[in-house]
Design brief:
This protein is of the alpha/beta class and about 350 residues long. The protein has three domains: about 160 residues, HUPs (Rossmann fold, 3-Layer(aba) Sandwich), CATH 3.40.50; about 60 residues, Adenine nucleotide alpha hydrolases-like domains (SH3 type barrels, Roll), CATH 2.30.30; about 80 residues, Translation factors (Elongation Factor Tu (Ef-tu), domain 3), CATH 2.40.30.10. It has nine helices and 17 strands. The strands form three sheets. A six-stranded antiparallel β-barrel has the order 12-15-14-13-16-17. The chain has a five-stranded parallel beta sheet with strand order 3-2-1-4-7, with helices on both faces. Helix 1 links the parallel strand 1 and strand 2. Helix 1 packs parallel to helix 3. The longest helix has 18 residues. It is globular and about 70 Å long.
Length: about 350
């Protein structure tokens, strides 16, 4: 059996490698480090610790006695993930690049590049893949509700799910740390990475400013129309955002972005709750195996442990869009003040991640 392992240099993927080695002692295992840092485009903004990451990856490969190969996917990452992020921001939507990174890069272009030489590919994601009696592969939530990463895996295809192995997916984070210490993995005490993977140590706001610049506009209280302050561009904010507004007398929450007039509308907590929504439309659903059975689902609007019950109803194609794209109306059991066009709603039944769709309006 030929197995590939994607290594980032972090404790999760490193522990996944050792765990895989112990579970498949006779397998031919090759580790891969995906180089996606955009040196030409982002070098002026700061540094990415990819060389440090690679050193940690090599260290665990030395322990496991498996070869490590570096695969450069910089151009592919730009074309399929970064350009999407920029175009969504320009359009006034809230992008989710990590979802597309898994679908298009880690389980996409990488598979196309070296997939023929492997039977399965392992990563350090917190999720569980199981094949049902009907032959379909399904992705189940991790027992660790905080670390569960099925939100980011929600757009995998059936073929991609069938190729995936998540060796630490059934473990709690503290157990992974304990195993890393027991096996003396080099990254055992390394902090978890935060933020979007291609940015390294660059702040997201600096990335946005680099490509979209700044455009000063007013921050307006939605209820009264009072101008409370200034902003540097609507693309720096998203619906429901609280931090980074620089306003006194808060807390204030972003409740609307008017890209045409370059205005950010904010509200106090009480007024923001009044503007919270429980109904929206999603477009172009991506199902990992099969669509939901019935209308009742659980859903996540963002990565994390919070889930909410909902009803989803397939809508007839609206001729005004002049497209055959599938749309669902989603009605949640609870309101949320952070529903933003462009972000992804991910659907579940029991502990199975069914897939997801982009919020349209």
């Amino acid at each position: 059996m030929k197995l590939g392992v994607l290594l980032s240099g972090g404790v999760d993927s490193s522990t996944a490698l050792i765990s895989l080695k112990r579970s498949y002692p006779d397998a031919q295992i090759t580790a891969y480090y995906l180089k996606i840092w955009l040196e030409d485009e982002l070098a002026s903004l700061g540094q990415c610790p990819w060389e440090e990451d690679l050193a940690y990856a090599q260290g665990v490969c030395d322990i496991a006695r498996v070869p490590l190969k570096v695969v450069s996917l910089q151009r592919e990452y730009w074309n399929q993930v970064v350009s999407y992020t920029i175009s969504e921001l320009k359009a006034g939507r809230t992008p989710s690049p990590d979802i597309l990174c898994n679908q298009r890069i880690k389980f996409g272009v990488f598979f196309e590049r070296v997939g023929d030489s492997m039977d399965r590919v392992a990563t350090g994601h917190y999720a569980v893949v199981k094949q049902g009696d009907d032959g379909f592969f399904r992705i189940h939530r991790s027992p660790d509700p905080v670390k569960d990463q099925t939100y980011f895996l929600s757009h995998l295809t059936q073929i991609q799910a069938a190729m995936a192995i998540f060796p630490i997916g059934k473990l709690m984070k503290e157990t992974v740390r304990e195993l890393a210490a027991r096996w003396d993995i080099p990254s055992k005490s390394r902090k978890d990475s935060q933020g979007i993977c291609f940015l390294g140590r660059i702040r997201y706001s600096d990335f946005v400013r680099h490509y979209l610049g700044e455009s000063e506009g007013d921050i307006v209280e939605a209820k009264t129309g009072r101008i409370l302050g200034k902003h540097s561009g609507t693309w720096f904010y998203t619906i429901g955002q609280r931090s980074g507004l620089g306003l006194s007398g808060g807390p204030w929450f972003v409740v609307e972005r008017n890209r045409e007039e370059n205005v950010i509308l904010v509200a106090s907590m009480a007024d923001a709750e009044k503007k919270a929504r429980n109904k929206f439309t999603v477009v172009n659903p991506s199902w990992i195996a099969l669509p939901p059975v019935g209308e009742r689902v659980m859903l996540k609007l963002r990565h994390g442990s919070v889930m909410v019950g909902a009803k989803i109803i397939l809508k007839k194609v609206d001729t005004q869009y002049k497209t055959d794209a599938q749309r669902y109306e989603v009605v949640m059991d609870e309101c949320d003040r952070g529903v933003a066009p462009g972000q992804f709603s991910v659907f579940y039944q029991n502990d199975v991640c069914l897939g997801g769709a982009m919020i349209e309006c």
